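User: Here's a structure from my thesis project, written as structure tokens. My advisor, Dr. K., wants to see whether a designed sequence matches the one we expressed. Can you design one independently, without my sequence as a hint?
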């Protein structure tokens, strides 16, 4: 399976679920909010990339049709 996964990080290292559970509730919420924000940004970027790819395919089709029509 492909895709992206986000995990909590402290000191540049991914922490385990057990380590995460030991954090204060405030710290857990802060990390969760950060992860949710990153997920939303990634979803928007992926949406744009897919849209750009679709537009590029359409431009190639249009150019191909125009060239065939001019032959």
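Assistant: Designed independently from the structure alone:
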């Amino acid at each position: 399976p492909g895709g992206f996964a986000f995990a909590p990080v402290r000191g540049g290292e991914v922490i385990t679920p057990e380590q995460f559970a030991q954090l204060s509730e405030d710290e857990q919420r802060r990390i969760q909010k950060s992860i949710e924000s990153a997920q939303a940004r990634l979803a928007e970027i992926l949406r744009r990339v897919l849209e750009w790819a679709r537009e590029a395919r359409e431009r190639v089709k249009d150019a191909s049709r125009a060239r065939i029509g001019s032959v």
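When you compare it with your expressed construct, this may help: Strands lie at 9-10, 13-14.
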